[in-house]
Write a structure and sequence with these properties.
The protein has one domain. It is of the alpha+beta class and about 70 residues long. The two termini are about 15 Å apart. It is about 20% helix and about 10% strand. The relative contact order is 0.29. The protein has a two-stranded antiparallel ribbon. It has two helices and two strands, in the order ααββ. The radius of gyration is 12 Å and the shape is globular.
Length: about 70
Amino acid sequence: MANTGPTVSADRIPDLFGPFRRRTQDRVGTTGRGLGLAIVRSIAEAHGTEATTEPGRPGGLPGTARFP
């Protein structure tokens, strides 16, 4: 999985896995709801694995969910 956009600092990434969390303007705004990574994490945990992501270069947020 991956998205495009501005670079996200590594210390901000854990917060983005919470529901309704977005890179900016948590819980407000006109586009997106901030549920994507929370849903990915829930699905991964239900299958006994985890979802991870890291800052992309030159931007965006590539991630991985490996299923057994």
